[in-house]
Each structure stands twice: as structure tokens, then as C-alpha cells.
Amino acid sequence: MENSRNGETHPAVDPWPGYFAERGHPEARRIGAGVEGVVYGLGDGRVAKVWTGQPPAEPARQVYADIARHRLPFATPEIFDVEHHRGVVVTYERELPGVPMRGDSAHEEYERELPALHEDTLLAVLRGLASVPGTDAMRRLTVQGDDRPLWQGHDRFQDALAASVARAAARHGAALAPHVPGLDAGVARTLNALRSLPDGPVTAIHGDLVPPNIHVDTAGRPVAVLDFGCCTTAGDPAFEAAVTAAVCDMYGPHAREHTAALTRLFAREFGYTTATLTTYQAAYALITYDLFGLDVNDGHFRWCAEQLRSNPVFNGGVS
């Protein structure tokens, strides 16, 4: 999928189609880009992903295999091979079916009331992923932007996430503070709320279920989920639901209404408390605000600051 949150621009000359052509894929073409890297169609049901940074390719490969062991009602990625080229990780994967559920809200204006089919698709994907138990490979993954695996040194997801929030706030908090009044106090409240959440199930977490990452068939049913990696881990399925409610529509004129409506829907359907979901939404904003930029000229930074300014847990209000 094309990710609009990082302000990506295409290079004047893209060397990768030639690279893949030399390796026996003359029809290689760029088909999308996400937080994790750029994807090229190779033909014959295969794609290649050129990863950003140095991802843990082998743990990711195992994570995909762990998920694939479960008979989900939609396809998920499968890595066939991993190679390194001039310090860049390249994975060869199977091409997933379907078309994006809808475009990114930065480019497509969503209606005031989300269609029932849209909501049903999100519920089906959340239920499917929540049925997959968390694994050691998932625990070894690093949330993008952090410097260590999320679970390192922790036995509980809530404590692991709190530690990641603390690291992220220390990393570039000085850039965020002018845009989020009471940042230090808000971070402290979020950390306390996270650590106070009870233990629960530990399942597979995608962490970036924006609509372009969910593929559907002609009837609108989910047939594939792609672009694992940004916040993929093992954790509380309530975190997945909370983040999905927040990122479904990030930039549209009705974004806040959609987040509130989906938060209520997921709380009702899955039995989560609103306080749990809003706590996780504050945590997500704090661990991802600096992924692409450090000022309000970056859309994702601006969105995270807005989320924190309005989040009741972060601000000490009643959720």
C-alpha cells in the first residue's frame, strides 16, 4: 500500500526494478509503499519488499509462519526468501489477493457515517487476529522507532508497552512538548494507566490496520491483511482494537467522530472498557509520534499531538 504518513516521494531513478530483473524477474514493478518499505510485483504470484532500516527478517519470517498455522478467514504474508543487498534487507513473499478496503483518508474523504460493511470488515479482521496466540517470535520484534524488542526484560505486555512509551517520550519529547501542554504529566498518567491494566490474553498484534492494509474481495469481505511490521508484536487484543479505531480515519473531516464511533463499537462487541481503549490510544500516539518527522509539518506527528491533546486518560479526565 502507499503510505501517506511519511511524506514519501519517489526517487527520480528507481534502481530496484533493474536489480530484480537481473535476478530473473524482468517484469518487476513498484506496486506500493508502507511504513516498513517498498513493495515490487514480480509476477507468478510473488512480490519483493525492500525494507526500510534493518528489520529482524528471520523473526518476521517466523511470525508469518506462526500466524499462517491458524486457519484465518483471510490470507497473511509468507516469506519465501531473505537476502541482503548493500546493507538493505529484501524479502521475497507471496502476493496477497484482493484490493484495498479503501484508500487512505489523506487522499479519500470518508463519509460522516461509516458503512456497516466497513465496520463488519474491521470486526472480522480483529476477531481473526485475536484468535492467534502470541508467540516468542512476536515478542522478539521491535516496534519501529524503538531500539530494542518490545518485550525485552518484561513478562507483561502492559509493562513492556509502558517501558516503550517512556523511552519514546525521552527520545524526542522536547520536540513534542511545545505542541502538547502538560506532556510530562500526561506521560506519567499514561504510564500509570498502562501498568494498572489487568492481565489478559496475549495474541498476535498487527498494529497498523489502516484500510489500505486490509484487502477485500468484490463483495467487500476481507481476504488478506498485509504490511505487518510497524507495531507488530504479541499483546493485548484490546490494543489492536484501540489502535484500529484511531487510525481507520486519521485525516478526514469526520476523523474524530469515526474514532469515537469505532471505539464504542469495539468496546461493545469485544467487552473492552472505554478506559482501556483510550489508554492504549494514548500509548500508540506516544510510541509513534516521531516515526517520520519532529514538527507539525509532518502529518503523523501532527495527528499524534492532536490525539494526545484530546485523550482523556492522557489529560486526567474521565474516559
Automatic annotation (TrEMBL):
Top-rank taxon, per record: Bacteria
Domain Aminoglycoside phosphotransferase positions: 28-262
Pfam families xrefs: APH
Name assigned to this protein: Aminoglycoside phosphotransferase family protein
